[in-house]
Amino acid sequence: MTWVPTEKRFEEYIEDYLTSMEDDGLKYDSRIHRSTDTWYDREKCIIGEEYIQFVKDSQPDVYDKLQKRYGNSTDSKLLSRLNREIGNKGLIHVLRKGFNEIQGGNIKTVYFQPSSSLNKKYREDKYLKNRFLFVRQLHYSPHSEKSIDVVLFINGIPILTIELKNQLTGQTVQDSNYQYKFDRDPKGEPLLQFQRCVCHFSMDNDRVMMTTKLSGEDTFFLPFNKGLENPINHDGYRVSYMWEEILTPTSLLDILENFVLFTKESDFIWSDEKKKVVEKKKSVLIFPRYHQLDVVRKLKSQVTHDDVGTNYLIQHTTGSGKSYSIGWLSFMLINLFKNDGQDRMFDSVIIITDRKVLDKQLQDTVKSLEQVQGVVQQIDKDSEQLRKSLKSGKNIIITTIQKFGVVVNRIKELKGMKFGVIVDEVHSSQGGKGSKNLNKTLSINLHQDEPDVDDEKVNEEVLKIQKEMRSRQKQNHISFFGFTGTPKPQTIEIFGTPQPDGSKIPFHTYTMRQSIGEGFTLDVLKSFTPVKRWFKLRGKGEDVELPESRGKKELIKWVDSNEETIRRKVSIILDNLMTTTVKSIEGRGKGMVVVRSIEDTVKYFVEMNKQLKERNLYHRIKPLVSFTGDVLLGDSKVTEGDLNRDNGFEGKDIPKGFKNPLYRVLIVCNKFQTGFDEPLLHSMFIDKPLNGVQCVQTLSRLNRKTKGKTNTFVLDFVNSVETIQNSFQDFYETTILSEETDPNLVYDLLDEIREYGMFTKQEVDDWCSIFYQDKRRDDGLLQPILNIVLERWRVLSDEDKDESRYKVSNYCKLYGFISMIHQFDNIELEKHYIFFEYLRKKFPVEGIGKLDVSNLVDLESLNLDIKGKLSISLEPGGTHPKPPTYGTGRSKKEEEFDLLSQIINDINDIYGKVPEGTEEGSKKLLQSIVSDKEFEYVVNSDNTDSNKRDKMKEIFDKKNINTLEVSTKLFEYFDKRENKERLIQMFISRPDLLNQLRG
What we know:
By secondary structure, the protein is of the alpha/beta class. About 40% of the residues lie in helices and about 20% in strands. The protein is globular.
C-alpha cells in the first residue's frame, strides 16, 4: 500500500531534496549500496573511485607524478596512504591539511570555499571539483552485512552518518540512539572508530540528536534542535532544517573548515592513589550544536550587512558552550572580508573577560581553534604587550577589561583601525568605568570633524570636549558582541537589537529553559527548602532612644549574626550536609555556605569546625573559607589563608584545593558566588539576601552536571520563595526591554538642578576651561569655583540640600549611561557632566554613623522552622523589564526615634509569633525522649546507625503523639521526616547529649 508511511520514503525524501538542488555550483550525487557492491572499501572506509577522480580533476599534475612512479598501482598506493594518514592523524586534520606523499608532495582531500569570488581559477579548477555523495543503506562492516541508513561522503571520504526513524511507523529518535549504542559497536569496525567520521546523527520526523564518539552503551548524545522543541513546519517535517541548512555542500564545507574541532579538555580531579589533585586530559571531537552554528552564521550575515559599528547581544545561558561560541565567533570575525574579499572588516578582534585572572577555559578554547600559529595573543603581562598586539593588527587578543584603563592615554597607533570586541559576561562589565575606558582606548586619534568656532582657545577646548563626548558614544569603528545569560535592562539598552515597536531584544538566545530541558544544566529550583526564623528579644540596661527604622534593621541583623543563631544554623547545615550532600553524586557531593559579610564567614568557619569536632566528624569533613583582605578574630587579624591552613590546606588555589574529598564545604560571602564552576557542588546553604542577577548567578553555581549528579539542594535562611522565583523568571527565556530610556530626561534633570541657583553658566564654562588646559600643573585652580558652589549649597534648606545632591548624582549616572547610546550634540551637557562629577566629590559624606546594638539586647528565644522541600516552577515566555529609572532626587525625611523597648515589642510582634505551645511542647517532648530507658539503651548500643535509627524513630513516633495535647501544629512539625531525622541524627552523633539534657 503506497499510502502507508515508511522509513524508506523518509530516506528518499531527503535524498531527492539534496540531489535535486545546486548549492554554489556544487551538488550531490546519490547511490544505494547493496551487500554485493564492491565500490565501497569497508576496511579503508573509502569510495576509491570517487577520491581518485577528485585527485585527477583537481590535482592532475600530482596524479601524473604518482603514476610515473607507481604505474598501475598508483590508485592503491594513494588510497592506502590516505587511509593510514586518517588513522594516524584523524579525519579533520587530513581534510584541512591534506597529507604528504614522498612523490606527490602535499595532496589535498577537499577544497574549501574561496574568500573572494574574484579568484575564478581556484573556484573552477579546485573548489568546483569537490564531489558530494549521498549513500543510502551503506553496508559498512567487514564482518557482517549491517547497514547505516544514510552516509554522506565528500570526495569518497565518509563525513557523517545518519540513522533515520519515522514516528508514523512507531519509532523515534530514541530508537536511533539505542541502535547506535547497542547495534553499532565500534570495536573492530573501521568506519565507527573515533575521528573516522566527524559526527553521527539520530533523527526522526521531529527531533535530531548527535554524537561524535560511539562508545557502546556509554555513548552520549547531544540535542541538535532549533529550540527545546523544533518549531512546526507548515510545509513538511520539523527537521527539514537538517537538509535545508546543515547538510548542503557549502554548509558542510563551512562546518568542516571552521567549526569541527579535535582538542583535549582538561579537568582537575582528586587522585586517591597520589593523594593530591591531578590534571586529567581527554581527547574530544567537537561538532557545533545548532544554536552555536546558528549564532555565528547569523552574526556573519548581519555584520556583513550592517558594516562595523553595531552592537549585538547574545543571551546564552549556562550550558550553551559559550567558550566555543566565542572562539568560533572570534575566528569568523578576524577572517571576515567585504568588497568581494578585498578588504578585512576588522583589524583586530578583542575578547574581554571581566575577571582579573583570565578565564582559563576561554583561553584554552580559543587557542585550540587556532589553525595558524600567532593569530591568538594572550595579554597576561602588561599594557605594553597589549599596545604591541593592537598595533600589529590582524589578530585575536584575549585580555581583561582592567588592562584597558591602563593604556587609555598610551595607544597612539590606532588611527583608522577597526575592532570587533567580544565581551564575556557583559552584564557585569558593561556600564562601569571599565567599558568607558574601553571605548576611549579604541577611539583615540579617530578623525573628528572640526568645530565651526573662530576663537583659537575656545576651538581647542571644544575639540577636547567633543573628543571626550565621542569617546563614550557608540563608535562607528567598533562592533561590540556581548555575551551573557542574565542581561540587565542597561545591558539590553546598549547591546540589544532595536525593534519597530521601540523595544530592544537580544540578537540571539539560548535560554535557561532550553538548557535545563535539554539536560545540559540542572534545575536548581527543584529542591528548595526555606527556613523560617522566629525569635524574641529582650532589652538589657537602660531603655534608650534609637532611630526607629535603622534600629529595627540593625537588631534583626544582630540576631542573624548572633553566635547562638549561627550555632543553630550551622547545626542545621551539618544535619543536611550529612543526610543529603555527602551522600549525593555517588558520595562525592559538596556544599557551599553563602553568608552576608566577611565577619560572618569567620564566625561560620569557627563554629562549623567546633561542631564537626563535637560530632566526631572533623577527621572526615572540613570546611574551607574564602574572603578578601583580613578580619579581626579575637585579638588578631586573620586572612582566608590563615584559617584554611588551620584545617590543613596549604595552597592558595581554593578551587583546586576544594577538589580534595576532605573539604566538603566552602564558606563564602562574595568570592566564588559567581564564576565558580565545580560540578561536585550539590548543595547551597544561603544566609544572605539575594535578588535579581546576583541571585541567579549564585544559585547557578549548583547547576553543572557530572556523572552521578541528578539533583541539587538549596536551603535558604533568608530569602522568600517569591524573591527567588521572580529573580529566575526574569532570565528563564528571552529578556526583552519594552522601551528605551528617554534621552530628554537629561535636559529635564539639568533644568531642575539649575533651579537651586548653586552655579552660573559662566562658572561652569570657566571651570571647564581650567580643567581642559594642556599640561595643567596646579590642580588647585579647580578648587575655588567648586568651593563657591559648595558654600551656596550649604545655605539651602535641608530638604533642598538633600534633593539637589541626589539630582547631581543622578545626572552623572543618567548622562554617563545615555551618552553611550545616543549622540548628544549639545556640548553644555558634557560640560555639566564633568563639572558635576567633581562637584559631587566635594559634597560632605552623609553623616549616618554605624549603629551598634550588640550591648543593648539579649536573645530571649530562637526557633528555626525548616519548611518542607519545594519545587519552584517558572512560566514559559519572555519577560519585559522596563528601562532603569533615574529619579530627580529624594526627600530625606526626618529620622524618627523611638524607645528601644517599643522597637523590641514591634519586632517581637512580627518575629516572635511561634505557634502557640511550641516551646513548652518541644521541651516536654525532648524531656520525655531523653528520660526513656529504651531510648538510652538504643543510643548507647553497639548496633549499626541504621538499626539504631529505625528503633529510635519508633520510640520517637510514640512520644510525639503526646504533643497533640499541646498543639496539632507541633505534632505535625515533629512528624516531618527531615525534623525527625535531624533530632535522631543529633543523638546518634552525640550520645553524651542524653546526660546533658537530663541535667
